Amino acid sequence: MKRRIWLSLLLCLLLIPGATIFTACGDDEGYQLSELRTDFNEIVTKYDNVNLTSDNRIEFDYSIYTYQNEQYFTDLVNSSRPYSHLNNFYNRLLDNSLQFVYNYIDRCSTNELDVEREKRNKMQFYLQSFDSALNDVSLNTSLVADILRFNINGNMFNSVCMNRLKNLFDSYDNLYLAVYNITDCLSDIYFNYALSDYNFDFSSIKIDQFDANRVTNILDSKIQYNIVYLTRDYTERNVKGGSLSTTLTTDTNGFPEVGYNFQEYQQKVSQADRSFSDTIGDEINASALKQDFFEASIKLYNLQTILNNNYDIYIQTCEDVVYLRVAENINASDYETLCLEIIDNYSYVVDEYNACLVDLLAIMENV
Fold first, then answer.
1. How many Å apart are CA 274 and CA 254, to the nearest integer?
2. What backbone phi and psi angles, to 5 degrees, belong to 177?
3. Is pLDDT above 60 for 17?
4. Between helices 159-189 and 117-150, what is the axis angle to 10°?
5. How confident is the model at residue 316 (pLDDT cuts 50, 70, 90)?
6. Which of 203, 239, 273, 279 could be a cystine partner for 235, CB 3.0 to 4.6 Å?
């Protein structure tokens, strides 16, 4: 009898740890969004050559590389192509791709939003991917600095230096992708959990029921995400996996500029990246331009709906092909050609969306 009691007690003791572990797994609530801002900042600040500015923006610091008190890397970046492309091109694209994160990460860094565990865990995964991609750019930056230091009294534009710089340029591809993934996840959380009816169909109501504040209150978030739209479109069709990095680091009677299409892209960004007063919605409601604003708001809804409905296939297409390689391949398959058409069509809608935002802003400025 005592033996049976002892065996029963032993069995219970053996089962308790297993039950505890099972319970712990079952109680796993997944990634906590309250850690989002802290985790993002920790990733950025862990690298010696990356800073987080006072307004929480990412900045690569080339001044840490010195020789005899001279900041040789910074001097090249500030004055000489192709090194100047780091700040004037690659880091500028990175900054624009992070616009939505910069402006809305704090609003999503809370456990008050009822976001499914799967989405929260996806954000954690994307942060890890961002960390890995940032590490690669940081490492390649140091490798460029090392070869420059070795050649500091010689030719810092020789083929070895240019090959290192090309590798650094190429490493930005994965960093852009990591940022786009974070932005996608963050925008999903913000638009679908922090807000309600962010893409309201204004064609379903009459003008006398229209309140411009419903548009202006969330217009900045759409502007910031629009900058990411434009940047992703630009990098997808002009940078990713192409020969640009080789072109920029090849001396053909001087190192080249990036190209006119980058200026066009910058103009699109600057046209829509404008601020406005908190009272502008009420001013529109009381103005003669309310009808124009109402019609432009309907157009924005329609364009937003098109972008939303086609986004998944656009992303899948971008994963399946490298746009620049297919565009240069006269033997591209029918599927690859179709992928280019999908990307081009999405690009057209992005441009139309940007133009609609510019029209809305113009109306606001004329109230």
1. 36
2. -60, -40
3. no
4. 160
5. very high
6. 239
For residue 58, give the 3-state DSSP assignment: strand
Q: Indicate the pLDDT class of residue 12, thresholds 50, 70 and 90.
A: very low
Query: Above 90 in pLDDT, residue 23?
Result: no
Compute the distance between CA of residue 97 and CA of residue 302 in angstroms, rounded to an integer. 24
Instruction: Specify the 3-state DSSP secondary structure of 70.
Output: strand
The torsion of the CA quartet 84, 88, 94, 98, rounded to 10 degrees, works out to 140
Is the whole-model pTM more than 0.85? yes
Are 326 and 332 within 8 A, CB to CB? yes
Distance CA 85, CA 77 (A): 7
What's the rounded Cα separation, in Å, for the pair 242 and 100? 26
The tokens describing 355, both together, are 């133009």
Q: Strand 58-60 relative to strand 50-52: parallel, antiparallel, unpaired? A: antiparallel
List C-alpha distances in Å: 359 to 224, 228, 292, 345, 353. 16, 19, 9, 21, 10
pLDDT greater than 60 at residue 49: yes
Closest-CA residue to 271 (of 351, 347, 215, 191): 351
The Cα 245–Cα 265 span in angstroms is 18
- Name, in order, each residue with C-beta under 8 angstroms of 330's C-beta and a sequence gap of 6 or more: none
pLDDT of residue 3: 42
pLDDT > 60? residue 38? yes
Rounded to whole angstroms, the Cα distance separating 97 from 92 reads 9
Distance set, CA 83 to CA 5, 52, 161, 266 (Å): 78, 22, 10, 20
Contact 249, 82 (CB under 8 A): yes
| SS3 of residue 150 by DSSP | helix
* All residues at 6 or more sequence positions from 168 whose CB lies less than 8 Å from its CB, including other chains: 86, 137, 140, 141, 143, 144
Span 149-185, pLDDT tens digits:
999 999 999 999 999 999 999 999 999 999 999 999 9
Burial 16-46 (b: 16+ CB within 10 A, else e): eeeeeeeeeeeeeeebebebbbebbeebbee
Task: Say which DSSP state 48 is in.
Answer: T
